[in-house]
Design a protein that fits this description.
Strand order of the largest sheet: 3-2-1-4-5-6
Distance between the termini: 12 Å
Order of helices and strands: EHHHHHEHEHHEHEEH
Helix content: 40-55%
Number of helices: 10
């Protein structure tokens, strides 16, 4: 079990990418739906509905679409490549440099906190998006864990978090770990492993899950409190 969070102590802060560090939800849903409609005998509207349904239920849509329509791993790999490439091609139109976030991340690094990214996205996409947001230099490459690094394991399982901890062995034993996510279901295995869990985004408004220790509208709001020493997660509930 990881050490419990205490204010004003060095921490490992792990961020999800999409809709946490960069805002991509609308474009991402459109890219998934476009790919599924083009490669399956369904309409765009049906593809969009299934994309959202599977994503909210399971944190992944491609694999569940493949199971539904009898597709193999090669089809999954092609879809994932095409979807991420479509987003990369369009990203300059909706991902802009985020100077306030960059400054907050710089302050966190200067204060001695270790920062990492854990995402289900593909490697080239993740680094491209971090670059467009102007924050790529603030994360060392080995602490940007992507789909390839976790070999496709969903964040609804412990495996991605365990692989992250393997890369953090130099600090894992002595530093509290904080996971910042926009999908509630992705935080349950993190909480079970001892992470302090932070939910940001739309889902934070009405969420009441006991395994989520703090909620904020945006990652910027979490970092404002965290850097000021006013971050007060509710750690009373068991995961």
């Amino acid at each position: 079990m990881l050490p419990a969070y205490k204010p004003h102590t060095p921490c490992v802060v792990v961020y999800d990418l999409d809709d946490v560090l960069v805002q991509t939800q609308t474009a991402a849903v459109q890219a998934f739906a476009h790919c599924f409609a083009a490669n399956l005998d369904i309409t765009y509207d049906e593809a969009e509905h299934l994309t959202l349904n599977y994503f909210h239920q399971h944190g992944d849509s491609t694999r569940y679409m493949a199971e539904r329509f009898g597709k193999d791993d090669a089809w999954i790999a092609k879809c994932q490549h095409d979807i991420h490439q479509r987003l990369i091609d369009q990203a300059a139109g909706f991902v802009m440099p985020d100077q306030p976030l960059r400054q907050q991340l710089e302050h966190a690094g200067a204060a001695g906190h270790t920062q990492a990214v854990l995402t289900f996205s593909q490697n080239n996409y993740a680094h491209h998006m971090l670059g467009l947001a102007g924050i790529r230099p603030l994360f060392v490459p080995e602490l940007v864990l992507t789909h390839q690094c976790v070999e496709g394991h969903s964040k609804r399982t412990p495996e991605p978090y365990l692989r992250l901890l393997q890369r953090l062995t130099h600090v894992a034993a002595s530093h509290p770990h904080i996971m910042v996510e926009d999908q509630p279901g992705n935080l349950k295995p993190a909480a079970q492993l001892g992470f302090t869990t932070v939910l940001v985004g739309e889902a934070a408004r009405a969420n009441t899950d006991g395994f989520i220790h703090a909620r904020y509208p945006r990652v910027h709001d979490f970092l404002t409190a965290f850097l000021a020493g006013t971050f007060t997660p509710n750690l009373e509930h068991a995961a």
